[in-house]
From TrEMBL:
PANTHER family per UniProt: AMINOALKYLPHOSPHONATE N-ACETYLTRANSFERASE-RELATED-RELATED (PTHR43877)
Name by which UniProt lists this protein: N-acetyltransferase
Top-rank taxon, per record: Bacteria
Keywords: Acyltransferase, Transferase
Record flagged with keyword Transferase: yes
Domain N-acetyltransferase: start-end pairs: 14-171
Natural source organism: Paenibacillus woosongensis
Upper taxonomic lineage: Bacteria, Bacillati, Bacillota, Bacilli, Bacillales
Keyword Acyltransferase among record annotations: yes
Pfam family, one: Acetyltransf_1
Length: 178
């Protein structure tokens, strides 16, 4: 079911949890709807559920669920396998178009910051195309700051597009002893 705005209940509860094996098909659907030439240098097209699961294993995303519907996710992983890079999570966020502007992205980001702090992560980083100003504004509203800009990094459909690098510090949880 692709759904539209009329499928969203007037009153709803958003549940945030780690992704599970059973979420794969819905997450693949979100990827197909969200990652276009305006939001990604190379739109994501998964050949199979198995390919998806090899690249996006269960637990590697926080998912937002309304009822039984996965309506968005926030993927996270260390940027490299180097031990000196373990304090950073690189993230990406995707919300099903029918469920935008309901606070799902903000809920996912708050949950990610909490999880990252619990896991000893000190920095969240992401990349966003300059052709996606709504995403840039969203990330700024969540406390992200620009840390760099790769000018004309991509040529997408004949247009040179900047790659904006953003980051947000993760505040460690307060200790009882202060």
């Amino acid at each position: 079911m692709h759904g539209d705005e009329t499928d969203v209940p007037r009153k709803f509860s958003i549940w945030i949890r780690r992704s599970e094996l059973r979420d794969a098909v819905q997450l693949m659907e979100i990827d197909a709807l969200v990652w276009t030439s305006r939001t990604s240098p190379s739109p994501i097209k998964w050949a199979s559920r198995e390919q998806y699961l090899r690249n996006c294993p269960p637990g590697g995303q926080l998912v937002a669920v309304i009822g039984e519907r996965v309506c968005g996710y926030l993927g996270f992983a260390a940027p490299t396998a180097m031990p000196c890079h373990r304090h950073v999570y690189e993230i990406h966020v995707a919300i099903h178009p029918a469920y935008r502007r309901l606070g799902i992205g903000s809920s996912l980001m708050a949950a990610m910051k909490e999880l990252a702090a619990e896991e000893g992560i000190r920095k969240l980083s992401l990349r966003v195309l300059s052709t996606n100003p709504c995403a840039v504004a969203f990330y700024e509203s969540c406390g992200f700051m620009m840390q760099g800009r790769l000018i004309a990094e991509y040529c997408i459909e004949g247009e040179y597009v900047d790659d904006i690098l953003m980051w947000c510090p993760v505040i460690p949880p307060a200790s009882d002893g202060k």
